[in-house]
Design brief:
301 residues, alpha+beta, eleven-stranded antiparallel sheet, two-stranded antiparallel ribbon, 6 helices, 23% helix, globular
Length: 301
Amino acid sequence: MRATIIAGLAAVATLAAPALAQKPLDPSNPDDAFKMNTKVICSTKAGEWTPFYWWGTVYSRIRGEKDRHLFDVYAMSMRQCQPFTDPVRGVGSRSVNREIMFYTLPGTKEVLREWKNPWTGETVEVMHVNNDPVNSRGVNWSRDEKGNPTAKFTHMVKDGYVYQGGGAALLFYDNPLAGEYQDYVGNKYQAAEFLTAVVPYKVLADPKTSRSDDTVISWGRISDWLPWMKMGGLEGTLIHYTGGLRLNNFEELPGWIKDEVRKNYPAYVAPPPVDDTRPNDTTWTVFKRKVDAERAAKKAK
């Protein structure tokens, strides 16, 4: 009798298993597509931090002059996302993030404190990227206000991997260091940033996973000179070219970067709070605050 009961329970469990199994996320479904996209650079789970680490080189380009290898760079960011649901707009998420990038002497990991400008001959203080915050402006949703799908998963899938990229963030806005007449005389900040990522498809499609721990990225930027370089009106651009990956936590960063962050930028060991409402930072806004503070300190003497 006991054997019969056990056999019956096993048969019921076998029949019930398919019904309990979760189906893979469907990239043609806007809600699923939104979740899959979120897993690439963040997490669908509240409170789960997402550190990235990337490194590479910075070159100058001036017409008629050979490109120069000016710096090596090592960067990290610490992000988290707050998930939302809405009966009309579907699933949503808001991203909050801090990012930092160190300029180092080429071929070394020596963090530069000063740099001799090869064009002007002036030695200037190096200001490393320390943008806090770099948040999404609001909640992004899988559907619009009327419930129409907006989220799409259009990335190339080959041999079990998703290849995401091909687009560019084209930046063009008023330079915070210039005056109030930029529409008339120029001085706009202009840059283009490029991000690509490679991620295992099965992780993105798995409804039980909240993020992809195996994301590999590349990031590049074409931009104006950095303000701390004091290039004045000299024609030319900077080219950043880097690659990197997602980490599990802050402790997986190289030791020298952890030491530098803890000593000089301790807030960057964690992302901002999910309810952070501060305006976003750029290199330009951070540099402007620095210059304004230095000028105010001189006046106070």
